[in-house]
Write a structure and sequence with these properties.
Length: about 350
């Protein structure tokens, strides 16, 4: 009898713990900058050289270009979406409808979510490409959808933050952010972090209730990044802010006018790339500058891996060692203009302006 009671207690405790852990488990959806904290940090280590695996072409310029799971999501000349398998070089499906000017899509389980410039938030079946639902909002949606429990949360140009039921697309709640939210949102432990073009930094709970806000001087156009203790956000005018999780300002740095990337957090430092060509890092606790490297490349948000940072060049990829500050041309494609770069697992894909896609293994 005692044994049965003990086993029942263990089973009940396990189920309770499982539910509790599931509630606070990190989100592993495939999305912009690697995770829903928008940290921009990828755990893998790059090899010394990158090996060319294959070259693909649809025969025309690509309108959309994303890496999700081990597949590519592409847009054809008619703005229809294609799920492309680079291992077998075949198209798995083509969407029934056209979708122009996508926000960065988010893949969660077997559902694909994205916003469009003509004011829609869309959900597709990832296995078939069939549209499950779409919700017309009549506002430009450029922020990547954020998964918070069973909700799809995103900002829009009408100054509102929406939360929709991920299964039906119906509105759960709407929060008035007072000015356009064009940057991606971030999430940590069920809290939602956002910035507006009016300089309002917000933290909401999963019910859409305001936890704290802070007004800063400037325009927030890039995604914030969240650490377990800190929230980092930068303004278009070139000021980098670091907040504590309770919303109090920890420090801020005034740099060269205008930014070229969103902040990236790794190992207690926040990295920012500026249009004067310098990559700088600051200690999250003190704001003290730890790193300043000149990098000559297009304006962009770089990709930060375990020990290195990679930038898209006009004709390839540049790799910068964070510790030694040494840089080298990691990939060089003579005669080609690189339009975009995405990292997925151990592969990096380069989209050329002519429509070719080069795949390298790292």
């Amino acid at each position: 009898m005692k044994t049965k009671i003990f086993v029942s207690f263990l089973l009940g405790f396990f189920l309770f713990a499982q539910g509790t852990l599931a509630q606070y488990a990190p989100n592993y959806g495939y999305t912009y900058k690697g995770n829903f904290q928008r940290s921009g940090s990828y755990p893998q280590t790059l090899s010394d050289t990158a090996s060319l695996v294959g070259v693909y072409s649809l025969g025309y310029p690509i309108k959309a270009f994303f890496a999700l799971d081990r597949y590519l999501l592409l847009g054809d000349k008619d703005h229809r979406l294609l799920r492309y398998d680079p291992d077998y070089q075949r198209i798995l499906w083509t969407s029934e409808f056209s979708y122009a000017d996508l926000s960065h899509p988010t893949l969660w389980e077997d559902q694909l979510f994205f916003g469009t410039r003509n004011g829609r938030i869309v959900c597709l079946d990832w296995k078939t490409g069939q549209q499950i639902w779409n919700n017309p909002l009549f506002a430009h949606v450029s922020s990547a959808p954020l998964m918070v429990g069973d909700q799809v949360v995103f900002g829009s140009s009408d100054g509102l933050i929406y939360a929709l039921n991920k299964y039906s697309g119906r509105t759960n709640w709407i929060f008035n952010a007072e000015s356009a939210v064009i940057a991606d949102l971030a999430e940590l432990n069920g809290l939602i972090f956002a910035g507006t073009i009016g300089g309002r930094c917000l933290t909401l709970n999963s019910l859409g209730r305001l936890i704290w806000e802070h007004h800063i001087h400037g325009t927030i156009t890039e995604a914030p990044a969240v650490h377990k203790d800190y929230f980092a956000v930068s303004t278009y005018e070139g000021i980098l802010y670091c907040f504590n999780q309770d919303g109090s300002l920890r420090w801020h740095k005034i740099n060269q006018p205008f930014i070229s990337s969103s902040p990236i957090i790794q190992n207690g430092e926040v990295y920012q790339f500026f249009p004067d060509g310098y990559l700088r890092s600051y200690h999250m606790d003190t704001g003290e500058m730890n790193l300043s490297i000149y990098v000559e490349c297009p304006r962009q948000t770089p990709i930060l891996t375990a020990k290195t940072m990679i930038f898209r060049l006009w004709n390839g990829v540049l790799k910068v060692d964070i510790k030694t500050q040494a840089s080298q041309t990691y990939i060089f494609q003579e005669g080609f203009d690189v339009q975009s770069m995405v990292l997925s697992g151990k592969n990096i894909y380069l989209l050329m302006k002519t429509g070719e896609i080069f795949r390298y293994t790292l």
